[in-house]
Design a protein that fits this description.
Largest sheet: 8 strands, antiparallel
Strand content: 5-15%
Shape: elongated
Number of strands: 16
Number of helices: 20
Strand order of the largest sheet: 1-2-13-9-16-5-4-3
Length: 695
């Protein structure tokens, strides 16, 4: 088995003989959305190796598609430059006459043919790799790495699990469960600090951040080295970003069947969209995963860091070059002009005068300003909106009429904001006055809670109202003391024990599923009646909850787990964590935003949950309901034998378990779904003789 895993994983990490863009025309690159779907399907089947193989391939293929498109467009731009002469026509200049127009469009057609041939040869037919906006969003959110970290963990590839988890968390810093996973990984033996790496980090940004760290430590020489690499990588990334802007027209709300612009209006619309995209590359390249806003003035700031790093390294020629380059963006910057004057005196005025700003930046600024002028013209002439992403753009680039309009718009916006603020204060006052009336109305229209409990010994201890929420109930007398003891014994005999849970290092965790208990019962390892009791008790809870909550559709089990949490005595001092952090059963809780995202890897199909407690001879371990902030406790439940807390599995019921500080806490955790396709498979198999459950 070890050898098989080793061989399979070598396939994942050994690079291809050819580059990403050197894809044979005989090789069909699998669409990455298809691979993503296969990986997700395998995830829900627990086929972890298939998850890894398909998700890693999906990521590679997506990167290949991007690289091929960028390289094809850049290569074809070089091969079909508009400055080249055409046989018998000279340089094609549109507008100089009908023949010259033909020469210009001949270049357009040749470039289109070049790009199409290049992409088709390397990727296959153009439609093969078109994906939906939803799939693009999943990759943008780095969702594949969420699946990968779970799959790698399951097959004990900890270094890869850590890297995948870190990569996902960098882009999703509010993801509570992933933060907990990373904290858990840090405590695991064999996990190294270098395993925590961002697999999606872009080279220019990684070098910039590394340079900043050296800069902060006053290691200016090392900082300068990384800033220089960052600048080179930035312009490489900028070329690729701009090339990728030359894609299909985005109708942006238009029905393409109804779009009926003429030739030149169509060209204008599309080209303005392309230019807007190219200008936005400055924002794209200044952004980093997990940061709400891009770095302001990113490219100029690189030269700001560099000039000071070179000054501290006593490299005055380089410092002058970088200062002059920065001043291309902000020529009136007082501090930088003072720095430049000082460096020039130290080096010598004559020698300093011979040093120029970097040519690549001059060209970049010239191109960007020409694009801005065209975009502002499009704004004035056709009403095609353009928002300049740069702070360094000279004021006179924007037409005066637009400058005046923007000033008026800002003043209007400020006035409206003030009026809205005053209106909100009035509304708050009215809300306070009407709160009592609203509460009374709500009480009148609320439906009576609670259907039949089906068993005489079961009683309702607390309702939703008493538990300060909705879709909540606390039941007592669900099973007897003898049944609690028998299930408690079953948990200790059959459970897989000795591993730290993914929630806290201060407790030991053990658990057994219905399927495992039944198999052990059939094998004679445990009494068959104990396994049957586990099965039947959970069925009993399902029936009671379905009746109490008056559900029109039947409930199905999605998962059943008999679990025990035991305090580790030597790890209880100054303990502040929870036994099970606050979470929601069918969505990803983002407590900082008071939101719950109903998306994988959450078990989105779960609809109701229940916990049947088996004992109370331990300290701590109270069950709690909270608000979506995961801090404000709305209700507390103390476990005891035969007690069940049942609740809806959605965002209305965030919950957790307080630390078990002494002894062992055991319970049967049950999750239910209204979707029969997600029913726990063991429930569909008749393998046990009928037995009764008291109650």
């Amino acid at each position: 088995m070890e050898l098989r895993y080793a061989l399979l994983f070598s396939c994942l990490i050994i690079p291809l003989c050819s580059s990403d863009t050197d894809v044979s025309s005989h090789f069909v690159l699998e669409p990455y959305d298809f691979l993503f779907d296969k990986a997700v399907e395998a995830y829900y089947k627990g086929d972890w190796l298939t998850v890894v193989l398909n998700m890693e391939k999906a990521l590679r293929n997506k990167a290949t598609v991007r690289n091929v498109k960028a390289q094809c467009r850049l290569s074809c731009a070089n091969q079909t430059a508009f400055g080249e002469r055409l046989s018998g026509l000279g340089v094609p200049i549109p507008g100089a006459g009908s023949v010259e127009d033909l020469g210009f469009f001949q270049k357009i057609l040749k470039r289109a043919d070049c790009v199409n041939s290049c992409e088709t040869e390397k990727l296959g037919y153009p439609t093969l790799h078109q994906v939906t906006a939803d799939v693009e969003l999943e990759f943008k959110k780095r969702t594949p790495y969420n699946y990968l970290q779970a799959a790698y963990f399951k097959i004990n590839k900890l270094d890869k699990a850590v890297a995948a988890a870190h990569t996902f968390f960098v882009a999703n810093p509010d993801h509570v469960e992933m933060k907990q996973n990373l904290d858990y990984y840090r405590m695991m033996a064999g996990v190294q600090p270098e395993d925590f790496k961002d697999l999606e980090a872009r080279p220019h940004m990684a070098e910039f951040l590394l340079g900043k760290s050296y800069y902060s430590d006053e290691s200016f020489g090392l900082g300068a080295d990384h800033f220089e690499v960052a600048i080179n990588e930035y312009f490489t990334a900028d070329k690729e970003c701009r090339a990728l802007c030359e894609g299909a027209y985005n109708y942006d709300g238009y029905n393409y069947m109804e779009y009926s612009a003429d030739l030149f209006q169509t060209m204008t619309d599309h080209y303005m969209q392309v230019l807007n995209c190219k200008q936005h590359c400055a924002v794209e390249l200044a952004s980093t995963a997990g940061k709400d806003k891009p770095f302001e003035d990113f490219l100029p700031s690189l030269f700001n860091y560099l000039q000071f790093s070179y000054y501290n390294s006593e490299k005055y020629e380089q410092a002058i070059e970088c200062a002059k380059t920065f001043l291309l963006f902000h020529p009136a910057d007082v501090v930088m002009n003072q720095n430049l004057a000082y460096y020039s005196v130290v080096l010598g005025e004559d020698k300093a005068a011979t040093i120029s700003a970097r040519q690549v930046v001059k060209q970049h600024i010239q191109q960007s300003l020409l694009e801005k002028e065209l975009l502002y013209f499009g704004y004035e002439a056709f009403g095609i909106t353009f928002v300049d992403p740069d702070t360094w753009t000279p004021e006179d680039v924007m037409p005066k009429k637009l400058r005046d309009k923007q000033k008026a718009d800002r003043e209007t916006a400020a006035r409206i904001t003030e009026e809205i603020g005053n209106l909100m204060k009035e509304i708050e006052t009215l809300v306070e006055e009407k709160k009592k009336d609203s509460s009374d109305i709500a009480m009148i229209i609320t439906q009576p809670e609670g259907g039949a409990l089906l068993y005489d010994d079961i009683k309702v201890t607390m309702t939703s109202k008493q538990l300060n929420g909705s879709q909540r109930v606390l039941l007592d007398g669900v099973i007897s003391d003898d049944e609690c003891r028998e299930l408690h014994r079953l948990s200790n005999v059959t459970a897989t024990a000795g591993a730290l849970p993914p929630h806290t290092p201060s407790e030991m965790f053990q658990g057994v599923t219905v399927l495992k208990a039944v198999k052990l019962g059939q094998e004679g390892t445990v009494p068959l009646k104990s396994a049957r009791l586990f099965f039947d008790v959970s069925e009993k809870v399902k029936k009671v909850l379905g009746s109490y909550f008056r559900l029109d559709a039947p409930l199905y089990f999605s998962y059943s787990h008999l679990v025990c949490r035991s305090a580790i005595d030597e790890k209880q001092e100054d303990r502040k964590d929870l036994s099970h952090p606050v979470h929601v059963d069918n969505c990803v809780l983002v407590s900082e935003l008071n939101k719950c995202l109903k998306e994988p890897p959450a078990y989105t199909y779960r609809d109701y949950s229940a916990i049947l407690y088996l004992n109370d001879d331990f300290e701590g371990g109270d069950f709690i309901f909270t608000e979506l902030d995961a801090k404000t406790v709305t209700a507390k439940v103390r476990p005891q034998c035969g007690r069940v807390v049942g609740f809806g599995a959605g965002q209305e019921n965030p919950h957790g378990v307080r630390a078990v500080t002494k002894g062992q806490r055991c319970a049967v955790a049950l999750w239910f779904t209204l979707d029969p396709t997600h029913e726990e498979k063991v429930r569909t198999i008749s393998f046990l003789p009928t037995a009764s459950v008291s109650g």
